[in-house]
Write a structure and sequence with these properties.
Layout: H1 2-23, E1 35-43, E2 58-66, E3 70-75, E4 78-82, E5 86-90, E6 95-106, E7 112-123, H2 129-136, E8 140-145, E9 153-156, H3 168-171, E10 186-190, E11 194-198, E12 202-206, E13 219-221, E14 224-229, E15 233-240, E16 247-250, E17 265-272, E18 275-281, E19 288-295
Antiparallel strand pairs: 1-2, 2-5, 3-4, 3-6, 6-7, 8-10, 8-19, 9-19, 10-11, 11-15, 12-14, 13-14, 15-16, 16-17, 17-18, 18-19
């Protein structure tokens, strides 16, 4: 009888172990590598007379592939995650230069395929000396959102012509976003093109879009996410002037003031030696967001 109980016990233990192993057997389906990678290149300002663009160096890329879940680009040694398969990149090396552009297409289970293309781009823009001096002090300069001044944070229509058209009552206030995790941020521009964002642990941004940062937490306040937990980071900055509009571009997830995704390009709406007003369009294409910055 004891032997029978022992045999039954061993059998039940084996059965439980087998069932547990079966529960842990996750089905991933077929692992299919993406194929048929295609790239569409839109060089800003390109036409029959100027096939390599208007000299701004700005290029819009759209990639597609079969059996793809996400797409990354590698451009000038910078890896960019492509939302919807599209990115914009500013080539700032002067002259007519041929660049490799690698598209990495990811499929199910993380399996990937890649293909490298070449694009020939003309860049003739040299930032004026006073703009570089204003931004970097010819070495390194630290900026912050001008919370103590009116009209330092604004919201308006895409392509609007004045600061804070939709909510002038809010944008006219000083310290209107106190406690949201924005006024203690610092933005450092080094003359070598390095951008450093000191967050002091938390940042401020738009609901859903801010999750692109990969941080955590935060407090929901309407469509704002306040004090989203996110650490300091570095990126690269560059200056271009598509259509004659001075534009500050940040690589990766680099942002200023309030995270809204998009193309991470900030038009310099106005500037003086110790102040600049920037605007950028959010990733939903709904609004332009305005920021007034002053030096530390």
């Amino acid at each position: 009888m004891k032997n029978l109980k022992y045999i039954i016990g061993v059998f039940l233990t084996f059965l439980m172990l087998f069932t547990s192993c079966q529960d842990d057997n996750v089905e991933f389906g077929d692992l299919i590598a993406p194929s048929n990678i295609q790239l569409t290149v839109d060089i800003v300002g390109a036409d029959a007379t100027n096939p390599n663009g208007d000299g701004s160096g700005t290029v819009n890329f759209t990639a597609t592939a079969d059996n793809v879940t996400t797409i990354h680009f590698v451009v000038q040694n910078i890896t960019k995650l492509a939302s919807g398969g599209s990115i914009s990149h500013d080539f700032t090396q002067l002259g007519l230069v041929t660049y490799p552009v690698t598209v990495i297409a990811f499929g199910t289970g993380g399996v990937s395929s890649s293909k490298t293309f070449e694009v020939e781009v003309l860049s003739t823009y040299e930032p004026p000396a006073d703009l570089l001096t204003m931004l970097t002090a010819n070495s390194s300069r630290t900026w912050k959102v001008a919370g103590t001044l009116p009209q330092h944070f604004g919201l308006g229509p895409v392509g609007g012509s004045s600061f804070g058209e939709y909510y002038p009552g809010v944008s006219d206030q000083t310290n209107a976003k106190a406690g949201a995790g924005v006024y203690d941020d610092r933005y450092i521009f080094d003359v070598d093109g390095t951008f450093t964002h000191i967050t002091n642990g938390t940042v401020f941004g738009r609901e859903v879009l801010i999750n692109e940062l990969g941080g955590s937490g935060g407090t929901v306040n309407g469509a704002d996410i306040e004090n989203y937990v996110f650490g300091d980071y570095t990126a690269q900055w560059s200056l271009t002037a598509p259509g004659g509009v001075e534009t500050l571009s940040l690589t990766g997830i680099g942002f200023i003031g309030y995270y809204v995704g998009g193309n991470h390009k900030y038009e310099i709406f106005s500037r003086s030696a110790n102040e600049m007003v920037l605007r950028t369009t959010d990733g939903n294409g709904d609004f332009d967001w305005w920021f007034k910055l002053i030096p530390e």
